[in-house]
Amino acid sequence: MVFLLFEYEPVFDSGTSASYVYHMILHECQGSSPELEIMSRENGCPCYRADKSILTCNSIVAAWTRGSEGFSFPSQVGYPLESNQARFYLMETHYSLSANEYTWPPKPKAMVDNSGLRLFYTSTLRGQDAGVLSVGMDPNWRHIIPPGQEHVVSEGHCVGECTQRAFPRDGVHIFAVMMRTHQIGRQIKLRQIRHREELLPIAHDRNTDWNYQEYRRLSAPVRVLPGDRLIAECIYDSSARAAITLGGLTTREETCLVLALYYPRQKELTTCHSLPSLPTVINSLGINELVPGSNPVRIASPPELSGMTLETRLISYDWRNNFRSFQYVTRRGSFKPLCWSAKNQPMPGTENLEGFAPNITKSYKLIRSCSFVGSTNVANVFFQNRNRYVTESETNVDLTVAGGDDDDDDIDSNNVIEGAARSKVSRSSVTESMGLSGGLATFRPLAIVPKMIASLLFIIVLNSFRIATV
Prior knowledge:
Layout: E1 2-11, H1 15-20, E2 21-29, H2 34-39, E3 45-46, E4 59-65, E5 71-72, E6 77-82, E7 88-96, E8 112-113, E9 116-122, E10 128-129, E11 131-137, E12 144-145, E13 152-158, H3 160-166, E14 172-180, E15 185-194, E16 197-198, E17 203-205, E18 216-224, E19 229-236, E20 245-246, E21 256-263, E22 271-276, H4 278-284, E23 289-290, E24 299-301, H5 310-316, H6 319-332, E25 335-340, E26 362-366, H7 378-383, E27 389-393, H8 408-412, H9 416-422, H10 430-433, E28 437-438, E29 446-447, E30 456-461, E31 467-469
Parallel strand pairs: 6-10, 9-31, 11-22
Antiparallel strand pairs: 1-5, 1-6, 1-9, 2-4, 2-7, 3-30, 7-28, 7-30, 8-29, 11-21, 12-20, 13-19, 14-18, 14-21, 15-16, 15-17, 15-19, 22-25, 23-24, 26-27
Helix pairs in contact: 4-6
Protein name: Copper type II ascorbate-dependent monooxygenase C-terminal domain-containing protein
GO biological process, one term: dopamine catabolic process
GO cellular component, one term: secretory granule membrane
């Protein structure tokens, strides 16, 4: 039996719950394994403790973030709920304290919450089945945002090799986007590259608010063809922070993600992220090479840094004078494309990809003249409801970063480098610490575990959770 989800809205257990719930995401789990059956009878578990190998739940059905009232699909589109393919759904909820309630060290109070999502579905099918594609930076410590800067750019790439393998010949049509950063995000743009030409941005939010990040319908669906590259570009203002900010899932950390609703749905590609390579990360800190196997991690070269620990380098690094070099390296250095399917596995043929910034020869540039509004140019008139851009040529040189082979898996296996980086992230002030991000995901009362940075998952059997029908 197939039903079609056409609308959903948040349901809060109480007014108190509404002030703590930060976001709720409903995932679809492919297949029906005994492990999922067992988990569906449990009361939920912390995200970070879950055995990811059995969670074939990499398709997003519905996503709600603080400030949103829910989402209604266009009349011709809906999300299919197919009981013969997906019997289990995973609910993920994150909680966050507000700034005036946060203290250090944290003193969380016990509370019970029963919030969730109310889904509306119908047995009347529509013309198009929708899917969700996540594009951006993978939430990871390698996403580094220097302190004391008003304009820091980060980019998450969905490379053309992945869209080429996954998208149908006629492409897909993006009709709504949810653009997400945390506290210091200021702008987000979803860019589209075809061959060496940059097309008009699919969406561009020039004034983001981390307490208001919901799905926004585009004025017209935008077609993305196989081989197109999508880039989530985020701009941060870290001028009020004295320590580096790392990528992650908590509100104290940062993220750069765009959830794109599109049709027709395909299941080959659901998560299309990128992650800076380890050579790019250490080069951005002026480091050429690390001492293999060292703990604490020590620098091998250049000679002037030889013997210094990575922690010391992070403490002493002159971000003010070296910021431009840092931005150059992080934006032009190599990265690891991460292209994952609905079954929470890498797409075949993408495991060993290495990515670099695209060599764009033609791009859109913002027109700053008021004459654009009254322009009779057909292209200008067509695009002015989206963003005011025109095409002009641009020559890029081939920019790469020296660093040798990317031995990320070997060097990162014991998390020594991550530990060195995170140990230097200050959590001593309210401004920099507002990061209690925990969660439950269930439709029954459960006590919130008083622990920092813990999210909880709950597996739901399709025929057991509450859905409003029409």
